[in-house]
Each structure stands twice: as structure tokens, then as C-alpha cells.
Specification:
- The complex is a heterotrimer of chains A (about 300), B (about 280) and C (about 350).
- Chain A is mainly alpha-helical and about 300 residues long.
- Chain A has helices at about 10-35, 55-60, 60-95, 100-110, 115-125, 130-150, 170-195, 200-205, 210-225, 225-240, 245-250, 255-265, 270-305, and strands spanning about 1-5, 40, 45-50.
- In chain A, a hairpin with a 5-residue loop joins strand 2 (about 40) and strand 3 (about 45-50).
- The longest helix of chain A has about 35 residues, at about 270-305.
- Chain A starts with a strand and ends with a helix.
- The N and C termini of chain B lie far apart (about 50 Å).
- Chain B has about 280 residues and is an all-alpha fold.
- Chain B folds into two domains: about 1-60, no CATH class; about 65-280, MetI-like (MetI-like fold, Orthogonal Bundle).
- Chain C is of the alpha+beta class and about 350 residues long.
- Chain C has two domains: about 5-235, P-loop containing nucleotide triphosphate hydrolases (Rossmann fold), CATH 3.40.50.300; about 240-360, OB fold (Dihydrolipoamide Acetyltransferase, E2P), CATH 2.40.50.100.
- Chain C has eight helices and 20 strands.
- In chain C, helix 3 (about 110-125) packs across helix 4 (about 140-150).
- The model of chain C has no long low-confidence stretch (mean pLDDT about 90).
- The chains are: A mainly alpha (about 300), B mainly alpha (about 280), C alpha+beta (about 350).
- Chains A and B meet through strand 1, helix 1, helix 3, helix 4 and helix 5 of A and helix 1, helix 3, strand 1, helix 4 and helix 5 of B.
């Protein structure tokens, strides 16, 4: 790597365009809502910058704290389910033959590349009142009843008729959707962490008399902890900021913080308050990223020994 | 002896991938990931408006999609935005990658962090920021097509080019710096070195970065949703309004088309990357 | 019972992918209290065999019996053996003490017993003063001692060592060889060590199994292995040796008559017939200007080729009219430099005892 002064002209020529774009169309827009978050709404469209903290104070009102809390809680539940599901999947991928491993990784990543909106829409078709799950169960119950009629217990004497479950437009649906969308985020870091793990540690543990479960909890989990933490944070951050999933799959009480921000900018038309909420969400994101950076550095140090 | 020959390849204690319960979990997980999408695609061919029971194969909904002017306009909008985004993002991404790869300069860590910001901040924050920005500077509405797509394109470039930069920089890491020094030594100018030596090496990275920018732009909903006006509807935004309105096979058909476009672009990207890795390996 | 072998390996094979034979019909017995070495070039199947003893690889065919118990369906964590890994595999997130105590904790031993036995094991490997250290604060040699203590503290019936010295530098390796022999004598546990380094195996083991291409070539004590190799592979793999091709026919009474062109016809004790190699170690070869008269010698005229001087001896290559030269290690027995200087092109009588000559079949 050379010092920029050694060819200053080439440096400026290549540096200027991307820097301009980043500043003009990213930093300035963000700064704008940062300024808005300290402003007051003085009319239907007028906003005055008066450096007050009222918007932030309002964000601490129980209603909004509750929504923050709910976002964190939903994201945490999503992350927890993802860890539980992704761990065995990551183990299976790591211990597969190389060609199989490549295909499995590809299969896990591929849904990533499918439009988020379409994946969420696909879940609506699965979960809605006459969606795949309810219809499938209906079919099962109807046919089970039909079989029971041979032993004289038909006509819904024992089971049915099937009443469709309300699977959509509630918190469970949102968490289901968030898990569906974020699972690959968890599998990949876990895979990377387990792949780095020297297998002789596992063998040594087995050799010393530990079974597979004790080896998992006493050796694999502590040694893969930085990778697990990284996966947890990588899943948690986008889950917490989700807009589309609660919007499409959630009910009236499933609002997450991103939905509140959106409604402040659209329906409620209270930009300063929406801006304050946006920045609170961003600060939370940065906080989580900082934790991850610290953990990664720790892991890096561990690798060098 | 024969009882020891039952299995020609017995399962060892660490052959976790061959344990039944792990295989079952992987199978169920993959089913969970793919069944909804495959179901969605399959039912775009279902000859029923109710969309739940299979009533026979039809391509009616693709014909309807083809004849639906507002959907086709949204599709054309999306492709136009994606193409413009791709071109500009690739150039900006290449320059960013080049600067970060080649130079040491004061505040580089901060600069790198700034470039990573569009990748890490929540989409909703970026969406509302762009919305406020364009409202505040008074971006004119009602411009003729395709100039009216400018605001969305600008927003897309802002979040897509840092992704492209990452991909291109990864490619540059395998560049042998002695090559450019050698070219300088042989009398090439700064610009000639960049054009004749660096860019050819970057090429697979440029292609991969371009394809990534294309899919990111084509797929984006949240940021577009906040920057789009009533006359600049993109394909995902249009699908969103249809989904909100009702679940019909047309939406399935439109979704299937979008999935296939992304899939093809992704396949090409993976292929390029794979080939590029193999070239990288054989060169070392 | 105590005379029964501690390990019996009966016709054990291991196939990878159904075709590649890593271990091919191996029969072996290891005696109680022995220091046993599995020696061979890389890829000969020795590590696979060791890992089958530990239970990490499952044999495709055959039977592994440890202390009279069939191990076919016994998981690694239930076997009465412990292993020292090539990479040591000292758990980086546990202190020395916790590492050594891990195996006892798995047996759910009372805390006091664990503490006592860990201290005892650490003293045994002279690490008593480092009990609280973390592995990343220790040298490679120290980490290996942790790995040893961690395995020995379980009082296994057999201790398995997978190339334990390969990661150490030359000086430390030699010290550790002596240390391992001392340790084995102290604890009286059977050691099975895998190594590709013949000097390591010769200097440490009571008995050595030489392996090649998945098969055991010979099992013998070190001296027997060196002086009486069973076949060409073993003769060539252990130490340096000259081989002269010839044809042998039986001459009765445990003797064969060998025709080898530059040597003429010689009658030697041996059993191999047909295409054979007459083999002699370089240090058993003598050189003289005059023709020796003793009929118990094999002699041939040779012209000096390359000479390599090693201080205590010189490695001299003689051209005796064969494709490859005959090498002799001539000890430099006095300070007379003239006497032990060989010049290229000089002719000498090169000779050795018939009794030092091996007749090796394929």
C-alpha cells in the first residue's frame, strides 16, 4: 500500500466520485433527519430546528418504550429460534463431504437472493385461513373422520369438523416470518465458526470420556462462542429493524419499531418524531455492531496462538 | 466375519452428517425454506382464482401479467432503475475498492466505516432519510420517463455501490502489486497502468459486483417504497400493493417472474465467482 | 490373564469410499506393559490403525480387542484407552488444571479425588508449578506435557500417541524421547506410538510394527528389525542398505546358492529363491588394497566414486560394475588422515562377511 501523496492526482480523481455520492446522497440525508430529530413540528408542513429533546423524551413514553421492548423481544425470540435450528444444520454442513457441503451451503444461501417481499408473500399463502397449513390439516381431519366412519365413529363424533386456525396477523406469524427470512444469517456464521474449529478438540473430548452432548456444551459451544455471538448479532440487527414482515404478517398489535417510524413519516406525518425514533434504532444497531467488533477481535486474537 | 461386513462404510463417531436425526433436521429446514417459495411458483400455474386447491395447469396468469399495463410499466421501471444502478454502482464501487486497496491516507478507518454505513444501517432509516432528503431539496415531480426514476436510482446507487466495492476489493486482494510496478517501470502512465493492468485483473470482480448491484436494486422494496412517487412505481412496490389488496394468482405469476430473473442473475454471479476462484487458484 | 495380549487386532481393514484400502487385513498383538511403535511412511495406514484403537475410525472388517473385550460397538468415550494428539488438542479455553481434570470430571469423580490425581499427574510430567496457566501462555513442549498428563490421569489400559514429537524442534524431541521412555517405565502403562521417524521408533520402542500400503510388513524388536529385515521394504526403510540383485536356488539345509553377476556364485543361509536381493549394511563393509583370503567373505573389486566425509565415518561409494554404486561407511578409527582419505578412481577390494549378508525375496 502506498501513501496517497505519492500520486495525489490519481488519488483524488478516484476518490472524489464515490465520496461525493456517499456524502451527498447518504450522509446529508441522514444528517437531515438527525437535525429533524431535534426539531419541532410547528405546522402541517413546517418544521423548526430549535435543538430540543422533546422528540426523544416522547420516544421514552411507555407506548413507544413498549414498542421498542416488543421489537427487541421479537428479534430476540427470532434469534433464539434461529440458533436452535441453525446449529444442527451448520454441524451437518461442516461434517459433510466437500461437494455435498458446497451444495448445502448454496441451498441455504439461495433464499437470501429471493426477494424479501416475495418470500413474505409466500408465507401468507402458507399461513392464511385457507392457506396450505389450514387446508392440509382440514384434509387430514376430513379423511381421518372418513376412516373412522368405518368403525362407526364417523360424522365428526370423535374429531372435527376442522376449524381453521388463525395463523396469520398475529405475533406468532411475525416471528415465524422473521425466522424464515433470517435463518441463513445464522447458519453462515455458525458454519464459519465450526469450520475453523480443530476437530481434534472434539476427538480429545470424546477420548477423555465425554459423550456427544457434553462435548457439545463443554467444548464446541465455548470454542465457537465468538462465532455464535457474531451470528446472534447479525441475525438480531436486521430482525429488530424489520419493516415488511410485521407489516404484512402482523396484526394490529404486532407493530415493531420500523412500522412506527414508517407511520410517523407517512400517515401520522410527524417527521421530527419519526426521525428521533430512526436515530434511536440506529444507535441500537451501532451498539450491537460494536459488541460484535469486540467479540471478533477477541476471536482473532485466539486464532493467532 | 460376515457380520462385520454389513456396512462397507461404517459411520464413525464424528460423522455427524451421516446421523439420521441431523439429516432429518437438515431436510426439514430445507423444506421450511423452500416449500413456501415452490408452492408460490407452482400455484402461479393453478387454474383457480381461489388459489388453494389445484384445479389444473394454466398459463393464463402469465398472459394476464403480460397484458396488465401497470404491472408491465412497474417491471420496466424496475429493470431501468436496476440497469442504471448497475452501471453507476459498478464504477463507484470499483473506484472505492481501488482507493481503499491502493492507498494509505489519514482517516482511512473512518472512511472505510463510512462506506460500510449504507450496508449496516436499518433499511427503514435509510428509506425515511431519502424520502426527507428528496422532499426537502424539492425534487421535481412529473418529469418525463425515465428521468422521473432519478430519485429512486440515486437512492439505489447509494446503498448498492458499497456492496459492489466489497466484492471488487476482495478480487483486488489477489492482485500482485509488482505487476503495476512493473508496468510503471516499463513506462506506462498512471492511467495506462489502471486501464491495462488493474482493470483486466478486476474484471471478474466487476462482473460479480455489477450483478450484485443489479439484484440488490431489483429486489429492494423498503427504500424504494419511501422514495417512490405515485407515477414511479417499481415492480416490488406494485406487488406490495397487490398483496395488500388481495392474494391472486397474478401476484404469484409476477413473483415467479421476479424470482426467475434474480435466480438467473445470481447463477451467473456464482458461476463468474467460481470460475474466478479457480483462475485464482491456478495462478498461485 | 495377565499374559494375554492387551491389544489384539484381528484381520482389521478400513476402506474409504468403499475402494481405497487404508488398512488391509492387519493382524497384530501388543503385549501388556510394552512400548509399541507403529512405523511407516505417510499414508501407510498407521494413523488410521491407531485411530481405530481409539475408536475414531470404525473398521470396515475385522475385530479390535482391548484387554479381552471386543471394541466393535464401543464408542471412543467408553474405551479404556486414551490418546495424545499430534496437535496436542489441549482445550484453549481451560487452564492446565481443568484440562487434566476434564477426563476425571467426565467420570464424575469426587472433587477431592480429581484435585489429588491432577496434582499427581502434573508432577509426573513436571508441570506441577504451572497448574493455573492457560494453554496459550505455554510452549509447545509444555502443552504436550499437558496432553500427556491429561491422558495418563485417566489411568488407561493403553496410551495412544499420534506422532507426539513431530511438532517439536530437534533438541526438544530428543529430550522428550528419553522422557517418554522414563514415563512409560514409571507408570507401567502400555504405550502405542505412531511415528514416521525410524530413529524415534528404534530408540524408544520395545517392539516395532513396520507398515506399508495398509499392511504390516514386519513386527520385531528394534535390533532384529535392523539386522534381520523380513523383506526389501523393511530393509530399505530402516537405515541404509546395499542391494545386489541375483537369482537364488535352494541348496539344502537352510541354504541358498545365489548367482549375482559381479560377485559370482555364493552360498548363503536363507530361504528365499528365485529373484532375490543380496543385502548388506554399509557399516558392515570393509575395504583393503590387498585381496582378502578368508573364504567366509564376499569380495569384489570396486572403484572409488563419490565420498562424503562425516567426521566419525566416511560414506564412500564404490563402482562395482552395477547400475548403482555400493556404499560403505568406513569408520575413521585413527587420526591418520592419509589412511582414511579416498580419492576418486582408486581401486580397492571391498568385502564383507557372508554372515552379514541377507537374502531378501520380494
Amino acid at each position: 500500500m502506498e501513501n496517497w501523496k505519492s500520486s495525489a492526482r490519481a488519488f483524488w480523481v478516484s476518490m472524489a466520485p464515490p465520496t461525493f455520492w456517499l456524502v451527498a446522497f447518504f450522509i446529508i440525508p441522514l444528517s437531515l433527519i438527525w437535525l429533524y430529530s431535534f426539531s419541532s413540528k410547528t405546522g402541517i408542513v413546517e418544521i423548526t430546528l430549535d435543538w430540543n429533546l422533546r422528540q426523544y423524551a416522547r420516544a421514552l413514553e411507555p407506548v413507544y418504550l413498549g414498542i421498542f421492548w416488543k421489537s427487541i423481544w421479537m428479534a430476540a425470540a427470532t434469534t433464539a429460534i434461529c440458533v436452535v435450528v441453525a446449529f444442527p444444520v451448520a454441524i451437518a454442513i461442516v461434517f459433510s463431504k466437500p461437494t455435498m457441503r458446497m451444495w448445502l451451503l448454496l441451498l441455504v444461501i439461495l433464499p437470501f437472493w429471493t426477494n424479501l417481499l416475495i418470500r413474505t408473500y409466500a408465507l401468507i399463502a402458507v399461513l392464511r385461513t385457507n392457506g396450505f397449513i389450514n387446508n392440509g390439516l382440514d384434509w387430514l381431519v376430513t379423511h381421518a373422520d372418513w376412516l373412522l366412519s368405518f368403525v362407526g365413529l364417523g360424522d365428526n363424533m370423535l374429531i372435527g369438523p376442522y376449524r381453521p386456525m388463525a395463523l396469520l396477523y398475529n405475533n406468532t406469524a411475525v416471528i415465524f416470518g422473521l425466522v424464515y427470512v433470517h435463518l441463513p444469517f445464522m447458519v453462515l456464521p455458525l458454519y464459519a465458526a465450526l469450520d475453523r474449529l480443530d476437530r481434534s478438540y472434539l476427538e480429545a473430548s470424546l477420548d477423555l470420556g465425554a459423550g456427544h452432548f457434553r462435548t457439545f456444551f463443554l467444548i464446541v459451544v465455548p470454542l465457537a462462542l465468538p462465532g455464535i455471538a457474531s451470528g446472534v448479532i447479525i441475525t438480531f440487527i436486521p430482525a429488530m429493524g424489520s419493516y415488511l414482515t410485521p407489516d404484512l404478517l402482523g396484526g394490529t398489535d404486532s407493530y415493531m419499531i420500523a412500522n412506527v417510524i414508517a407511520s410517523q413519516f407517512k400517515q401520522a406525518n410527524n417527521w421530527p418524531f419519526g426521525a428521533a425514533l430512526s436515530f434511536l434504532l440506529m444507535y441500537a444497531t451501532f451498539f450491537a455492531l460494536a459488541i460484535r467488533a469486540v467479540l471478533m477481535r477477541k476471536e482473532g486474537r485466539g486464532d493467532r496462538r | 466375519m460376515s457380520i462385520f461386513r454389513r456396512n462397507p462404510d461404517p459411520i464413525g463417531p464424528l460423522d455427524y452428517a451421516r446421523r439420521f436425526w441431523l439429516r432429518a433436521i437438515v431436510a426439514v429446514t430445507l423444506f421450511f425454506l423452500y416449500a413456501p417459495i415452490i408452492g408460490l411458483m407452482a400455484f402461479s400455474f393453478n387454474d383457480s382464482r381461489r388459489n388453494v386447491v389445484w384445479r389444473g395447469f394454466t398459463t393464463d396468469y402469465y398472459v394476464k401479467f403480460w397484458n396488465n399495463d401497470s404491472l408491465m410499466l412497474a417491471f420496466a421501471n424496475s429493470l431501468t432503475i436496476a440497469l442504471m444502478t448497475t452501471v453507476v454502482s459498478t464504477i463507484l464501487g470499483a473506484l472505492t475498492a481501488y482507493v481503499l486497496w491502493r492507498y494509505r491516507f489519514p482517516g482511512k478507518a473512518v472512511y472505510e466505516g463510512g462506506m460500510a454505513l449504507p450496508i449496516v444501517i436499518p433499511e427503514i432509516c435509510m428509506g425515511v432519510a431519502m424520502m426527507v432528503f428528496f422532499a426537502r431539496i424539492g425534487w421535481p415531480a412529473g418529469l418525463p420517463w425515465p428521468i422521473n426514476l432519478g430519485s429512486i436510482t440515486i437512492a439505489h446507487i447509494a446503498f448498492a455501490f458499497p456492496f459492489a466495492a466489497i466484492v471488487i476489493r476482495a478480487r483486488l486482494e489477489s492482485f500482485n502489486r509488482e505487476l503495476s510496478e512493473c508496468a510503471r517501470d516499463l513506462g506506462a502512465s498512471e492511467y495506462r497502468v489502471f486501464r491495462d493492468v488493474v482493470v483486466p485483473h478486476m474484471k471478474p470482480g466487476l462482473i460479480a459486483g455489477a450483478l450484485l448491484a443489479f439484484t440488490l436494486s431489483l429486489d429492494d422494496f423498503v427504500i424504494t417504497f419511501f422514495t417512490a412517487g405515485p407515477d414511479t412505481v417499481t415492480f416490488p412496490v406494485k406487488i406490495y400493493s397487490m398483496v395488500r389488496f388481495s392474494v391472486t394468482p397474478e401476484v404469484n405469476a409476477a413473483s415467479t417472474v421476479l424470482i426467475l430473473v434474480t435466480l438467473v442473475v445470481t447463477a451467473v454471479a456464482l458461476w463468474v465467482q467460481n470460475r474466478n476462484n479457480m483462475i485464482g487458484k491456478s495462478a498461485h | 490373564m495377565s499374559d494375554a495380549p492387551i491389544i489384539q487386532i484381528k484381520n482389521v481393514s478400513k476402506l474409504y469410499g468403499g475402494t481405497v484400502k487404508a488398512v488391509d487385513g492387519v493382524d497384530l498383538e501388543v503385549k501388556r506393559g510394552e512400548f509399541f511403535a507403529l512405523l511407516g511412511p505417510s499414508g501407510c495406514g498407521k494413523t488410521t490403525l491407531l485411530r481405530m484403537l481409539a475408536g475414531f475410525e470404525v473398521p470396515t472388517g475385522g475385530q479390535v480387542i482391548i484387554d479381552g473385550q471386543d471394541m466393535s460397538n464401543v464408542a471412543p468415550n467408553k474405551r479404556p484407552v486414551n490418546m495424545v494428539f499430534q496437535s496436542y488438542a489441549v482445550f484453549p479455553h481451560m487452564s492446565v488444571e481443568q484440562n487434566v481434570g476434564y477426563g476425571l470430571k467426565m467420570e464424575r469423580r469426587p472433587a477431592r479425588e480429581i484435585k489429588e490425581r491432577v496434582a499427581e499427574a502434573l508432577d509426573l510430567v513436571k508441570l506441577g508449578h504451572l497448574a493455573k496457566r492457560m494453554p496459550d501462555e505455554m510452549s509447545g513442549g509444555q502443552r504436550q506435557r499437558v496432553a500427556l498428563a491429561r491422558a495418563l490421569v485417566k489411568r488407561p489400559k493403553v496410551l495412544l500417541l499420534d506422532e507426539p514429537l513431530s511438532a517439536l524442534d530437534a533438541k526438544l524431541r530428543e529430550a522428550m524421547q528419553l522422557e517418554l521412555v522414563r514415563l512409560q517405565k514409571t507408570v507401567g502403562i502400555t504405550f502405542v506410538i505412531v511415528t514416521h521417524d525410524q530413529s524415534e521408533a528404534l530408540s524408544m520402542a520395545n517392539r516395532i510394527a513396520v507398515m506399508a500400503q495398509g499392511k504390516v510388513q514386519q513386527v520385531a524388536p528394534p535390533a532384529e528389525l535392523y539386522e534381520m529385515p523380513a523383506n526389501r521394504f523393511v530393509a530399505d526403510f530402516i537405515g541404509k542398505i546395499n542391494m545386489i540383485e541375483g537369482d537364488a536356488v535352494a541348496a539344502g539345509d537352510g541354504a541358498v546358492r545365489v548367482t549375482a553377476p559381479p560377485l559370482g556364485e555364493v552360498t548363503l543361509s536363507g530361504t528365499a529363491t528365485g529373484k532375490v536381493a543380496l543385502a548388506v549394511r554399509p557399516e558392515k563393509i570393509f575395504v583393503d588394497e590387498k585381496e582378502p583370503a578368508d573364504p567366509a567373505l564376499i569380495k569384489v573389486k570396486g572403484k572409488v566414486g563419490e565420498v562424503a566425509y562425516f567426521g566419525s565415518y566416511s560414506n564412500v561409494f564404490f563402482d562395482i560394475g552395477l547400475g548403482q554404486p555400493l556404499q560403505a561407511d568406513i569408520s575413521n578409527l585413527s587420526r591418520d588422515i592419509e589412511e582414511y582419505t579416498f580419492k576418486a578412481g582408486e581401486e580397492y577390494w571391498v568385502y564383507w562377511r557372508k554372515s552379514d549378508t541377507l537374502v531378501l525375496g520380494d
